[in-house]
Amino acid sequence: MDGVLIIDKPSGLTSHDVVARARHILHERRIGHTGTLDPFATGVLVILVGRATRLAQFLSDVEKEYEAIIRLGYSTDTGDRTGNPIPGPSSQPRDWTEEEIEAALQTFRGEIDQVPPMYSAKKVQGKKLYELARRGESVERKPVHVCIYDFAAIKPSGQLIKDNLDGTFDFHARVSCSSGTYVRTLAEDFGKRLYVGAHLAELRRTRVGDFLVTQAVTLEQLKVHFGEESLGSVLLPLNAALSRLPFVHLSDEDVRRTNHGREVIVAEYGWPDGENVRMCDAQEQLIAVGQYDAGAKTLHPRVVLARD
Predict the structure, then answer these.
(1) pTM over 0.85
(2) Which domain holds residue 148?
(3) Which residue among 117, 139, 174, 223 is least enclosed by CB atoms within 10 Å?
(4) Do 19 and 78 fall into the same domain?
């Protein structure tokens, strides 16, 4: 049982909870994920099964895409709906024009610096920030450089902003960003551009790299597939996990060399020095991920996937 599962994470579970349930369903200990999703959030969680867990290092830095509801009206201490409202003077929400909204969105597109929220898993001096926050502590955090590829309005029923009739307004947005981006922080900073408190009311991850939410299955559906012995219809092969990497077909002799961790000579492909390359056999099975030596024109296996 080796491959990649795209799970549609439900709200209320941590990413670790999802991994634990997948282990229980599949009776497989070697299961991990490629990037956490907040407990209140839903959507794409990439699960690696069996030998695929060795590929996590090649999947952790891909871009992500989200659909979010940013609630304008007040901030919370966590930056999302699970937190407590932050007391203090509040700016009154008003009827923002489409031009004002677009101008605010535009300021975040491209490369920006974000200060990680206190309620995050980022570590400072070996301690997770959320553990410190729960004790009422706050520490200085260094800004993180991220890239916002797209930050745009979604208009349900053609409506730019929904009036909740309780002093708050909901703004639906699509966010495409680099790994490590805090959408909660983006929501708070967006509110500041509009001179109003804001927090993240809903968050759904719709894409991780090339993996789409349309490919995802729920934990309940995973259980059914396992029981009906149809897991192959949702378990993606190892090669699919790294579809963005270049690949090379190996001869039978080179497959043997690779399985023993020995470098193989390859033709001139024009890859940059240090490029990670999929090393496949004649049947398109992923044998290893190798690192290209441009000077020697060789591939040195970094991760070999020979069966245990």
Answers:
(1) yes
(2) 64-208
(3) 139
(4) no
